[in-house]
Design goal:
It is built from four helices and no strands. It is mainly alpha-helical. α1 packs antiparallel against α4 and α2 packs antiparallel against α3. It is elongated, with a radius of gyration of 23 Å. The relative contact order is 0.15.
Length: 128
Amino acid sequence: MSISEKVKSNLAYSKELVESGIEGAKEARQTVLNTEETTDIVTAAAQDSWQAAAIGVLAGAICGVLADDRKPIRGVVAGGLLGAVLGFGGSFAWKTRPLTSAMARGAGKRIGRVRDVRWLSRNPINYG
């Protein structure tokens, strides 16, 4: 097998892995979002994360004032923005962890199946 054939084979395999991972994540997302207790998980997480963003703005603004001696306004704005992003993002990620963990498990299972098929095609098992 030449190098170009190996590269093409590996690229096709990589594409298959990525596609199977995306499909597994999509299936898991639909499964989680269609269950009764988690239908509004993303909406609720976004609404609840604004409190953490407000706390992040305050903490970031205080840190920005303390960190920037020459231009405290710039420090307040930059620190406040960074604090808001970190506060909102962290809270949103924490509140949607059932969804993201299910998506990661679904993607992992699908990728595992594709890897198993490739391994079995390269290492056939002879019963007998």
